[in-house]
Amino acid sequence: MRLGAVIAALSVWGSASSRAQDCPAIAAVLPNGTLSASLDSTNCQLSDGSPYMPYRLDLPVRGQIRIDLSGAKSNLGLILRDRSGAQVDSGTSIRHSIEAGSYVLLVDGRTATDLGPYTVATSFSPEAGMMCSDFPNIGSTQTVTGVLPGSGCLAPNGSQYEAYTLTTDGAGTLTIALASQDFTPVATLRSSDGRLLNSSATGSLSAPVSGESQYIVVVNSADNTGAYQVVTAFQSAADETCKSQGTMTDPASANGAISSGSCYMTEPASGDQLYYDYYRVSLASAGVVNVTAVSPDFTATLNLLDAAGNILASDSGGGEFDPSGNAQSNLRLQLPAGDYTLQVVSDVPAGGKYSLQYAFTAGNPQPCAPVQASPGDLLTGALNANSCRTALGLADLYTMTLPTAGTLELGLSSLDFQYPPGCARFQRQPDRSQRRFQRPHGVANHRRSSGGRVHDRGCRHLRRRPVSGHYEVHRP
After folding, report:
1. Percentage helix, strand, coil, to 5, in the chain?
2. If DSSP codes are grouped into helix, strand and coil, which group holds residue 230?
3. Share of the chain above pLDDT 70, in %
4. Whole-angstrom Cα distance, residue 217 to residue 330?
């Protein structure tokens, strides 16, 4: 399926960001490398049933990216998106000047029957004289494979290196084992400001680390280049109170309390400390994870992280209210087999008690079914914990068939949740006669033009309470 941008009275949006039940990018593609895989019924699907596979692409420095798709026996294509979900480029071959940061690369089929094998080859050339800084994350207990040189990073002495950012929860001892059959590995651990903490010419080292801190794991070679593997392990300090509260199994429930002795993170914008508990989640097969948290003392924020520490999904107060009137937070996400971390974060320093419910349903991803609508229809609905989950959060999807080109005006009203007027997404169908309207819940970051239209610069999740409830779509 090929997506495009649509101009309407309510928004201007690169609607390649629109998709159905959202599947996060967990598998990675290297800046310089080749991967081969296949699209089949186990992959995520757009609302029309066309499959796609998302890959995470981390670039530590700006430069020129080249991505080529080959080996496909059906009609497949590439879509490159930035961190906000906006389309950067698309096609079977991408050439683009690109900034440092995290991106998502989709391999997708035009129709539901476009399946089969494919090969993606990437080539990245960093801008000369630029220092690398936005390194990909690595978990404190994780195995990562890579290639030296992979990102094109150069040390001040001109030697090539790869690096990863590691963030700790609590204090303890970090062990790093770097191995390669192609070169003699040199492992280095640095603080976030670049200070040398430990280095090993054998590729293995251990070092004490502080809680709620960032470190840089550096991969060097004493001679040649080639493939390598990094294995990290962590042992909490004996007196450390920031530890995993347990491993969630299906079904599971937990009662906990967040206090000043819990784990904490620093909010970058305000500098405030946010206290949290965390749990391990280990999935033996693909399926849907469904988690709900509620507290009488605070509105919980649920964060689901992958093994490297990347946030895959977050929710605060999006699960309606419990019988006592407490706001519930809910995450429902399709995930592949693997290891994950679930955080329960308090929005007040004092913390308090909370309860957590966890369930897992094994199975392949299911697309969100859009509802047929016509221009001028009065559409009523409700967003709740069972609604479709997209990159924007809770959403309902509608399909409209337009007989001719023109301007489609839509108005949205709700007494239950807030939103900037007109922040919506449109998804172009192949024959360009249909438009799919996706109404997300709380969204922000927009501006009005002089003509009264809203030009959306990336509708984002708003943590409001409530962020679910009834709505009405009508003529403005």
Report:
1. 0, 50, 45
2. strand
3. 83
4. 34
User: Scanning the structure block, which residue is given the tokens 């084992």?
Assistant: 177
What is the dotted CATH code of the domain comprising 247-362? 2.60.120.380
Nearest to 47 by CA among 318, 286, 390, 314: 390
Tens-digit pLDDT profile for residues 224-240: 999 999 999 999 999 99
Mean pLDDT value of segment 242-267: 91
CA proximity to 335, closest of 379, 261, 297, 284: 284
C-alpha to C-alpha distance for 103 and 300, rounded to whole angstroms: 28
237 φ, ψ to 5°? -65, 150
Strands lying side by side in the sheet with 63-70: 33-39, 116-126, 63-70, 93-98
**The predicted structure's pLDDT at residue 464:** 34
pLDDT at 372: 85
- Asked if domains 21-126 and 247-362 share a fold, the reply is yes
Per the CB < 8 A criterion, the answer to whether 121 and 68 are in contact is yes
If one looks up domain 21-126 in CATH, what number appears?
A: 2.60.120.380
pLDDT top residue among 408 and 430: 408
CATH of the structural domain 142-236, one choice from 2.60.120.380, 2.60.40.10, 2.40.30.100, 1.10.10.10: 2.60.120.380
The tens digit of pLDDT for each residue in 201-211 reads 999 999 999 99
Q: What is the pLDDT of residue 390?
A: 64
Largest distance between two CA atoms of the chain:
70
Name the one residue in this structure whose structure tokens are 């009405």.
Answer: 472
pLDDT at 137: 97
Residue 452 has pLDDT above 60, yes or no: no
